[in-house]
């Protein structure tokens, strides 16, 4: 499956919103979103004012979908598959959609504070640094269930990136549906989060409307 390998700061500039795709670097003065507050590409040359067209209904929903997809680091086909799965579930489609994305292993690793960003978490999972219920899992899209335990593999407990992130855990928001055991480098999914417990700025209802048009 393809993946975006270009500069991620231009994605934030495209949405005109800081999406924290680089983790810790987004809090520094080196953040390109702060240094180049213009649209990416030829039309957004540095020093020129941003001229955005007034978005119509379709454009508003498209940009919200693109923002949500960018935040979770998914390609279009995979992202749409999650929507189709959420559509078949009971309850509100938008909330189901977000819950599925939040239950991904790479997202859980990021939310627990083991990685600075979802992109970094995806790489750590791909390299087999984590166990789920004592079984090695290297699939970033593996969906966790309540009660599942994510543990750093024994051979990976000396990884500097994990210990550095746990030292900076003050910037990681404590979530009631996750439990972290720093001493044993493991975390547990306590429950499926409600919409109010998911700290994201997207409007999932616009995304549902986009795919339901």
Polypeptide structure, described:
The chain has 213 residues and is α+β, with helices and mostly antiparallel strands. It has 2 domains: 9-100 and 201-211, Ribosomal Protein S4 Delta 41, Chain A, domain 1, CATH 1.10.1050.10; 104-191, Structural Genomics Hypothetical 15.5 Kd Protein In mrcA-pckA Intergenic Region, Chain A (Roll), CATH 3.10.290. It is built from 9 helices and 5 strands. It has helices at 9-15, 32-35, 57-72, 76-88, 93-102, 105-112, 118-126, 160-167, 204-211, and strands at 130-132, 135-136, 149-152, 178-181, 186-189. It has a 5-stranded antiparallel beta sheet with strand order 2-1-3-5-4, covered by helices on one side. α3 packs across α9 (204-211), α5 (93-102) crosses α9 (204-211) and α6 (105-112) crosses α7 (118-126). The chain is globular. It starts with 8 loop residues before the first helix and ends with a helix.
Task: Name a few traits of the molecule.
213 residues; Ribosomal Protein S4 Delta 41, Chain A, domain 1; Structural Genomics Hypothetical 15.5 Kd Protein In mrcA-pckA Intergenic Region, Chain A; alpha+beta; five-stranded antiparallel β-sheet; 5 strands; single chain
What structural class do you assign from the helix and strand content? alpha+beta
CATH topology of the largest domain: Ribosomal Protein S4 Delta 41, Chain A, domain 1
Proportion of residues in β-strands: 5-15%
Average predicted local confidence, pLDDT: 83
- Count of discrete structural domains: 2
> What Rg is obtained from the alpha carbons, in whole angstroms?
18 Å
Q: In this structure, how is the largest beta sheet organized? A: 5 strands, antiparallel
General form: globular
- Spatial strand order of the main sheet: 2-1-3-5-4
């Amino acid at each position: 499956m393809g993946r975006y390998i270009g500069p991620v700061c231009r994605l934030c500039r495209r949405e005109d919103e800081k999406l924290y795709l680089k983790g810790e670097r987004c809090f520094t003065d080196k953040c390109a979103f702060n240094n180049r507050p213009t649209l990416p590409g030829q039309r957004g040359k540095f020093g020129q004012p941003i001229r955005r067209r007034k978005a119509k209904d379709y454009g508003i929903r498209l940009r919200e979908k693109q923002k949500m997809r960018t935040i979770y680091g998914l390609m279009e086909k995979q992202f749409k598959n999650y929507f189709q799965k959420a559509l078949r579930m009971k309850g509100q489609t938008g909330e189901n959609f977000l819950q599925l994305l939040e239950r991904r292993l790479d997202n859980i690793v990021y939310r627990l504070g083991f990685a600075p960003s979802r992109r970094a978490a995806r790489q750590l999972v791909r390299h087999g640094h984590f166990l789920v219920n004592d079984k090695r899992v290297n699939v970033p899209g593996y969906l966790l269930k309540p009660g599942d335990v994510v543990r750093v593999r024994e051979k990976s407990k000396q990884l500097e990136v994990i210990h550095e992130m746990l030292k900076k855990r003050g910037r990681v928001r404590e979530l009631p549906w996750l439990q972290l055991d720093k001493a044993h480098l493991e975390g547990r999914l306590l429950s499926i989060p409600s919409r109010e417990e998911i700290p994201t700025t997207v409007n999932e209802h616009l995304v549902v409307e986009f795919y339901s048009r």
